[in-house]
Amino acid sequence: MTALTLSSIVFISVMGVLVNRFSRRHALAGSLVIAALSGVVTSLALTFEELLSPRVVQGLGYNGVMPMTVTLLGDLLWNP
Q1: Matching Gene3D superfamilies, A to Z (predicted)?
Q2: Cβ of 38: how many Cβ atoms within 10 Å?
Q3: Global pTM value
């Protein structure tokens, strides 16, 4: 959990720049793909060391999914 959270903290500003540069839909889709693929790789890990690096990458995907979900829900509910 720490590896996922630390990578989220470090790269949150990078995701903000990417969302402003590209559309929200593309940023969300890319983040979902990154999170899903790294989740699959994490499930195939045999040792603890093999588990850490995919969790860091999964944190990058999580970093894009969670703030984007809140933003999209706000757009849907308050901007009909």
Answers
A1: Multidrug resistance protein D (1.20.1720.10)
A2: 21
A3: 0.76
Q: What is the pLDDT of residues 57-71, one digit of tens each?
A: 888 888 888 877 777
The Cα–Cα gap between 79 and 75 comes to 5
Structural domain containing residue 8 = 2-78
Domain count, the chain: 1
Tell me the residue length of the chain: 80
Q: Please tell me the distance from the alpha carbon of residue 28 to that of residue 34, in angstroms, as a whole number.
A: 10
Cβ-proximal residues to 34 (8 Å cutoff; 6+ apart), any chain:
57, 58, 60, 61, 64
Among 51, 44, 50, CA closest to 4: 51
Tokens linked to 5: 């959270």
Residue 62, token pair as written in the block: 């999580």
Residue 66 structure tokens: 């969670």
Cβ atoms 58, 64 nearer than 8 A: no
**With contact defined as beta carbons under 8 Å apart, do 54 and 66 qualify?**
no
